[in-house]
Description:
Low-confidence stretches: 7-11, 131-138, 230-249, 256-261, 292-296, 323-336, 363-398, 499-536, 771-780
Mean pLDDT: 76
Amino acid sequence: MRESDDAEAMGRPSVAGRLGALLGELVGRGVAERDRGALRGLGVELREAGRVVDVFEAVTLDRRDAAMWTVDLDLLDAAIAVGVPVADPPTGVALRLAAWLESGKGRGDLAAVCAHPGFRPLLRDAFLDRRADLLALGRPVELRTHGGADAALLDAAGPLDLLVESLHEWVTAVRAGSLPALHEAVYHLDLVGPARLVERRPQTRPWVLELLTADLPALLAETWRTGLVDERGHRALERFDELAHSEDVYPVDLSDGVGTDEGFVVVAGARSAVFDARRRIAGPLFARLPELAGSALPPTHRLRFADGRLAADRIDPEALRPEDRRALVPVGGKHSHELRRVGTGWWEVANAAGVCTSRWYQGPARPRRASGSHSVGRYRHRWAAGSELVVPVHLWPHLTPRDRSGSRVLRAADRALTDRVLGAVDAELRARITEIGRRIGVCSPSREVDETFRALRQVIDPLLPRIRADRLLDGIAGTVWTAVECAELTARHLDPPSAEGVKGTKGAKAAKDTKDTRAAVDPLGGTDPSAGIDSPGADDAEVGVVLRTDPRPHPRADAGDLRARYYTGMQDMFERIAAVAAACVDPTVVSPPQTVELVDAQGWEQGLGRLGAKALRLALFPRSGGGEQQDELARDHLRMWGVAELGDPGDRWRVLEVEVDTGHPPEQGTVCRTARGCLIALQRSPSTRGRVAPVLEYAYDGRFDPSPFGRTVADRVCAGWGGRERIAALLRLHHDRGAAPWPGRSVAALADAGAMSQADAAVLTAGFEPRDAYLVRQGRGIDSRLAEMSGLDPREIADAARELSRRVSPEQRLAIAELLMPEDPADVWADRLAVECAASRWHAAIGKGV
């Protein structure tokens, strides 16, 4: 709390100090009416004193890092609403909305916060924009991942005003030819529900309908004409990894003397490249510009490139001829295409109207190489510019097209061409593109994206035979991907205005009501619906469609498809391990691989042969509040094991801890062929001390010989529930039915058979999370939902977990849950767990005094 007051010098608390103390008492606890009165009084004192206070830290609930804060938004809103003069928040911060969303129906409308000029951009980014997030470009984080965020946004006046304001901007940009703006608008509307938005703000109907019925072929043609910059560049530039986009371009002399051999230099921080007059790379420059040059070359100096170095020579501008003076002006100027940077790493190309027609990611976070090369094009997803390095647009006049024929095709693209390309994408591919686009972030590597992108290229390439550059075709496919998503998502919410097609809609009467009321109130709060926009848009009758109140289902992928969706790196590693094991037991393979590539992860081998416990927890626990993405992450923990050899180990794999005889354990990934299979040295955990190394052993017949090297400290033969068919069946059941009911009868039977309490049986069934049980001895604690699911007292659950952790080893705890998982996954939903097997193991463990 920053504010000085004369009262401090007199030993009395300042107004700011009293405000800070009050906020500290209220943060996270809610604001009662009497608290508002106290805040109002302090606000009056501060305004009379002409003081503005910084309350941001006082209302902060959590600050995980310097840039991401969780704030008590209701308390902040109350303070601003009653007149506390609040200063702007710090620069460079972003807000998390989780605490406000989880506060339920008691949360406020945030109208005062959203009206504050300093906090309004933060709230807008948090709810809607946040384009700097790699996984949220045009797809807001909270709306996508937090269950109930859509309803919270529509019920709160402040965030709803932000959405309407964004709607205004999207309509304006789409009218000027921006396909990316339409994509953002369609994603937001699909997440909140356009019919629900219109119900809250009926005056937005014309804008909503205009966006949902936008002319996609025309927008795609504009993107091809102005947004695909990939066809211009210089192949030699790709040799220089550190060269990235720059807006600093200077003319340069390429000889030691004065002459006409002139070129220009592209400056990118400490890395630059020099071009000669014939557009050839004259030389890389791995050093900064001379200090004298700075960000703009002084008119008294000129750059000279000689002997691989740049120098700044002093000149007399008055002694130069007029034509030579013009050379002092940096290369560039106004062009029909404008390159601009957005946020912390997104680049956009704007058309002549100034709206974005293409965008891609190029650093600084998570580049594929040190160059900051944009990930979108390499991962082949929507908005792909397609190039490893796109030269700044103001250099285009100095460079030749990579693909002259393709460049001419794109510059002449019209609606007929793009309509033909869009029409060639069949319904199955459209559904696959849309399903993947909703689920996978823009820059997330995925085999699904790669395979679907290849299928899209197979459709597009024959229709554009004059375009030969592979990167241009990648960029085109990325924009088609975007357009297809827009078309499929908008189709969910629209029906023809016929009697047969208006099922679930308000029909012609809604259209008539819209016409009668549209001119009365502007969506942005004025009385003229065209305020800020030249024309208000169309209603249902004019566009020939009707807005549905019950959207059609989203396209769905097969939940039982065992290709990993998120943990692709882990699944790829499992497949490599399985391939190495197969090669080692194949007598026709004389020299199998001596190494296998492992991912940067430790301890994963402890999950091998223990999928039953993981599957049981997945089936029993309710879906998270984090939305579809969190549910998919949970399913992918199981899906990634869908590899034939490892998903059903069948006693053929063994995990060892081996103490080697030397101080240098084998490198991770080292493969040692044995008589019955192989041994693979695994990743060592940072906590591993001494000479102990984790090893994975494969034996085709399940007979394991002593380790050929070192001393075995511990071993475990991997055998348990699994198999590709069972994993796929469980995932389909979980996707279709949701969480299974609590298996009360099975838990009671386990308690009876094992002579234990109901709480003990509940904790053994689903209390111990498998990962914690082997990576963290104490675990992270019992999930608080277990008591609610089982109907038991939370204290009973906690006491049982504490006692079981004390007297039962993690291996035995895992074994009970593993054995409880029935062979048929459907039995979990029928309350038929494998109690007899688990009880037998429990008695054997108890008999040994575990």
